[in-house]
Design brief:
Blueprint lengths: L3 H14 L4 H7 L5 E3 L2 H13 L8 H18 L2 E2 L8 E2 L9 E6 L7 H14 L4 E6 L8 E6 L3 E5 L4 H10 L6
Helix pairs in contact: 1-2, 4-5
Length: 179
Amino acid sequence: MIPGRTLAILALACVLAGCVSEQRSKHLNMSIPISFVSRSEMEQESKAVAARRSSGSGRYDTWKRYHNSLCKVARQYGNVSDSPDPAPDFYFSGDWFHELSDGFALLTTRGFSSQALRDFQSIVAAHHSDALLNMGGEVTTRLYGLEILITSSGIFVAWDGQTPAGCKAKLSAIGVSLE
């Protein structure tokens, strides 16, 4: 079996080289597992990726291309907006701080599925090996406490204050299965 990081790199190399289409590369990432982790494990993964980056925020135009690609995926699964009214499925503040980072607040479970997470992961992996996407449940919703970290090599899901089993139980209670 090919490890997730290696598979993501191979998928990206094939897309860049033109040996497979972007649609085919989405099928290559199906073996990237969705890992249920503790909040501290997620923080360690995020810090490890961030530590590999060069200092500085990078270029806004690079981030904007990344953001637009992520929004394109989000629109396949729900409404995307930088305005909280009316409440979108995927909310973004419009702020940026690094060309390799982006994020959404999740306000509903409408666009939340294992396929959506894998589609986001394809974009993250194609952008850069040290790119990150953070998503979290909005404080005013039943998703509050949910945290998702997507890297070029993995998808990590946690619920603040919960064990991995507790995270799965919280998701199940709101009708979400990522298995």
